Structures are given as structure tokens and as C-alpha cells.
Amino acid sequence: MLAKAGFDFSVSLVKRGHYPRGGGEVIVATQGGSKLRPLELVSSGRVLSVGGLSHCVRLPSHVAVRQARAAEEVLRTLKVPIRIEVEHYEGGPDPHLGPGSGITLWAITERSILGGDSLGERGKPAEQVGKEAASALLKDLSTGMALDSHASDMLLVYAALASGTSRLGGASLTSHARTVIDLIKMILPKVSIRIEGGADEGPFLAEIQGGLSAL
After folding, report:
1. Same domain assignment for residues 121 and 178
2. CATH code of the domain containing 206
3. Structural domain includes residue 125
4. pLDDT by residue (tens digit) across 97-129?
5. 201 and 118 in one domain?
6. N or C: which terminus of the chain carries fewer CB neighbours within 10 A?
7. Does residue 187 sit within a domain?
8. Per-10-residue mean pLDDT for the chain, 215 residues long?
């Protein structure tokens, strides 16, 4: 999504970290120097396919498999191709500090990509983890907006820094999104933000007139 704004970066996963021991590690590389372009991400359009990655570390491989199967069962209502990969380390070197599992899903649509995820925890069935992620994705897709409930707040920052007017359609005006908006107004008082909708954390449309010149 950030590539649409001209933000050039890459992220590589070295190892995962789960509560409480943590220990996760990623490598992020980015190129600076160019101005960000405004974003036009309002409606998602038709769903084309769904992908995903279900993982577990220091746990039996069937945990990741069950998460994936449960998610796929929920997502079949979309009637599109679904491919959820499974990642585990059973029987091989495992650099992780503690056990954990999770699943990330993404829906590729005509004009956007929306995601949903869930983490495992002690006493929580793998099937519940998969269903939670799939249900979250379906809920956001049902709004018809281009951004899921997590991307809705994160992209507001980049839109505020982009040169020009951005229009963002978010699945949910969460408390996080409202906090981001308040912070942008405090730090970048010249940036104009107009919000339509969003009552009771519902779908919303944001119009942001930003740019580094507003600093």
C-alpha cells in the first residue's frame, strides 16, 4: 500500500517473537529522498483472491495446519481462490525463544489489499485463532472500503506527509485512528483533515491535505 505513495522499502523476517519472551527480529531497508505522493484509496472493489500464512514455533506442526484449515472454511463464502501457506519448525533448527502461533490473511481486491490476523495463546484452540482472523477480514471487506481496520490508522500518517490531497476509505474509525488524527493536528497544525462517517467505530472517509511543506 505504501508503494502507491512512492515509499520504497523492504522487510525481511529473521525470526519470530511471541509473548512473554519475545526475541523477534526483522530487517527493514528503505530509500529516502523522494516526496510522498498523495493516496487515493477509497473503495476496495471486487475480491479477487485470498492468501495467508499460518505459523507456529516450538509447537507441533498440526497447530499451524488447524489454524489454516479453520480460516479457509470461514473464507469459502467469498467463492474466490484461497491459498494459505503453513510455516513450522518441527524436526529442524528452531531459533525462537518460546512457543507461539498465529495467522495472517490478506485479500487482494481490484483496488486494494486488506488483511486480518490473530495470535494463539495458552488454552486457545487453533481453530479459534483461524476463525478470528478470517472473521476480522470478512468484517472489513463487508464495508467495501479500501483499508482494513489496522491500515486505516497507519496510512493517515503517510497521507499527512504526502504532497497533495489524499482520500482514504477505512473500514473502522478505531480509537487508534482517532488518536493518530489528534496527534497529526498537534504536530502538523497546517495539515487539513476532514472525516465523514466513523460513528461507533464504523467505516469512514478521510480527506487529508498534507505535505512536508506543512511542517
Report:
1. no
2. 3.30.1370
3. yes
4. 889 999 999 999 999 999 999 999 999 999 999
5. no
6. C
7. yes
8. 86 91 93 84 98 95 98 98 92 79 98 98 97 99 98 94 95 97 94 95 96 56
User: Contacts for 189-192 with beta carbons within 8 Å, 24 or more apart?
Assistant: 190/214, 190/215, 191/160
- Is 176 an annotated catalytic residue? yes
Q: How many domains does the chain fold into?
A: 2
The full length of the chain comes to 215
User: Are 131 and 113 contacting, i.e. CB atoms less than 8 angstroms apart?
Assistant: no
Q: pLDDT, tens digit, for every residue of 15-30?
A: 999 988 899 999 999 8
From 18, 96, 150, 176, the catalytic residue: 176
The residue from 141, 160, 178 where one domain ends is 141
Question: String of b and e for 85-105 (b: at least 16 CB within 10 Å)?
Answer: ebebbeeeeeebbeebbbbbb
Residue 28 lies in a domain: no
Cell (9 digits) for 113: 489489499
Q: Provide the β-strand partners of residue 105.
A: 52, 116
Domain containing 53: what range?
A: 47-141
Report residue 112 as a C-alpha cell: 486494494
Please state, in angstroms and rounded to a whole number, the distance separating the CA atoms of residues 165 and 163: 7
